[in-house]
């Protein structure tokens, strides 16, 4: 675990620059190489999971490179107290409360694949599945015509789908089409016969998960789940029923969130897209874009109600302010909250303020 003590006034810091936050500014408080954790940004959180007043560290461990064994690990005072196997690699893990003033209402949400797995007392409690998204109209039309034909012409179907793949790209097409095109030609007929009259839908996938307080500043306070999808959606779920409260449609998939304020009030969600776009969303309003990052983002953290810090893959720590814009923010002495990064060699890096 590494801790950074930044200057109380900076707007942009590069780890290579002498005048910014150089590597000499990192204080190595704890290093445990035998931990062997492989964690992506968003895969760390702390929560009092049992309501006893003692917070636990929750990690989404992807396992070593080449391993498909993903586990959710829970630590107390440096010791692992439980682990839970996951079928799909998680995009993130968050802890939150479903009721105001109820310490025992704490739950852990793990986003993986097209589902959010909710744990209560680290036992399976609820599973939320993303709604399917509509397939591209041209793809639907091809499969619809295929279903109407009395006698299936698999060669025509393959030619039409191959042309569509070249036109739209693989990311736009459904898993049915991609699987059909990847199959041996001898197996395509039976596959098409099995599915050609089944309605075509495109499976969605989670890309990011976070929380935002719902309607109270008193701790513990209930929080809404924020979900980002491959289809470019941002879904805000009610903490009690886990139903969709609000939905925002973007033109790009979000990969990281940070939030501040109350969602039922003037709260905002900061969102970063896979293509580097960064902006904010408030309830009932479309996304307001700020900037396009020069490199993919690693993590984002709110510093105050006026700005955020973003770590990007070129080694730069950037500051953004709603009031002053990029690189002009004098940050007040506010801590980085849960700003965890995986260093790539089995260590966990947490940025904080002294």
CATH architecture of one domain: 7 Propeller
CATH topology of one domain: Methylamine Dehydrogenase, Chain H
Uncertain segments of ≥5 residues (pLDDT<50)?
A: 1-23, 25-29, 327-354
Average of the residue pLDDT scores = 81
Helix content: 10-25%
Query: In the CATH hierarchy, what is the superfamily of one domain?
Result: YVTN repeat-like/Quinoprotein amine dehydrogenase
Please work out how many helical segments DSSP would assign.
Answer: 4
Oligomer classification: single chain
What characterizes the major β-sheet? 5 strands, antiparallel
Total strand segments: 27
Q: What separation lies between the terminal Cα atoms?
A: 15 Å
Strand content: 35-45%
- Name of the CATH class of one domain: Mainly Beta
Radius of gyration: 23 Å
Indicate the structural class: mainly beta
Shape category? globular
Task: Give a quick summary of the entry.
The chain has 4 helices and 27 strands. The protein starts with a strand and ends with a strand.
Task: Describe it.
The structure is a single chain. The protein is mostly beta strands. Among the domains are: 160 residues, YVTN repeat-like/Quinoprotein amine dehydrogenase (Methylamine Dehydrogenase, Chain H, 7 Propeller), CATH 2.130.10; 70 residues, no CATH class. Helices cover 13% and strands 41% of the residues. It is built from four helices and 27 strands. A hairpin with an 8-residue loop joins strand 8 and strand 9. Helix 1 runs antiparallel to helix 2.
């Amino acid at each position: 675990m590494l801790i950074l003590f930044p200057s109380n006034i900076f707007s942009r810091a590069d780890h290579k620059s002498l005048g910014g936050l150089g590597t000499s500014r990192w204080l190595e408080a704890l290093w445990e190489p035998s931990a062997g954790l492989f964690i992506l940004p968003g895969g760390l959180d702390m929560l009092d999971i049992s309501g006893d007043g003692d917070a636990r560290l929750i990690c989404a461990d992807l396992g070593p490179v080449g391993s498909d064994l993903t586990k959710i690990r829970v630590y107390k005072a440096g010791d692992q107290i439980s682990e839970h196997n996951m079928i799909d690699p998680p995009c993130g893990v968050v802890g939150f409360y479903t009721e105001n003033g109820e310490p025992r209402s704490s739950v852990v949400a793990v986003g993986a694949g097209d589902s959010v797995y909710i744990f209560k007392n680290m036992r399976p409690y609820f599973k939320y599945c993303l709604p399917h998204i509509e397939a591209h109209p041209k793809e639907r039309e091809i499969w619809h015509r295929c279903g109407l034909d009395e006698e299936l012409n698999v060669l025509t179907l393959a030619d039409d789908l191959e042309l569509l793949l070249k036109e739209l790209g693989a990311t736009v097409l459904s898993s049915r089409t991609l699987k059909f095109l990847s199959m041996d030609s001898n197996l395509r007929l039976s596959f098409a016969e099995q599915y050609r009259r089944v309605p075509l839908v495109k499976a969605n996938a989670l890309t990011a998960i976070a929380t935002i307080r719902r309607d109270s500043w008193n701790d513990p306070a209930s929080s809404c789940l924020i979900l980002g999808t491959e289809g470019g959606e941002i879904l805000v779920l009610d903490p009690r029923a886990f139903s969709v409260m609000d939905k925002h449609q973007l033109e790009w998939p979000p990969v990281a969130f940070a939030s501040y304020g109350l969602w039922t009030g003037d709260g905002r969600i900061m969102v970063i897209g896979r293509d580097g776009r960064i902006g904010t969303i408030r309830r009932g309003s479309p996304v307001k874009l700020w900037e396009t990052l020069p490199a993919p983002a690693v993590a984002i953290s709110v510093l105050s109600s006026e700005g955020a810090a973003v770590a990007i893959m070129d080694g730069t720590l950037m500051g953004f302010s709603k009031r002053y814009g990029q690189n002009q923010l004098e940050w007040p002495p506010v801590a980085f909250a849960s700003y965890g990064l995986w260093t790539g060699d089995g260590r966990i890096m947490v940025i904080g303020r002294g």
